[in-house]
Backbone:
């Protein structure tokens, strides 16, 4: 179950609650502060996906020379 952030429209308290997406959308989550079921789901604060930057890695070609010291 994902965790959603809610903002109570009755008292203005903000809280997080584990619930299903349907419950979150319906706003049936009771406010822990006042108990009102007028919670409004806030925008998720999940970390945005970071695209891998920087292309070009080590080539497959090897020098083929195993140097030995000494
Ligand atoms: Zn409240």
Residues:
């Amino acid at each position: 179950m994902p965790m959603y952030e809610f903002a109570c429209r009755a008292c203005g308290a903000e809280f997080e609650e584990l619930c299903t997406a349907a419950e979150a959308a319906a706003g049936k989550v009771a406010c822990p502060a006042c108990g009102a079921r007028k919670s409004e789901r806030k925008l998720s604060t999940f970390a945005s996906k970071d695209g891998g930057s920087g292309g070009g890695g080590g080539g497959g070609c090897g020098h083929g020379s195993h140097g030995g010291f000494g």
Observations:
- The mean pLDDT is 79.
- The longest strand covers residues 3-8.
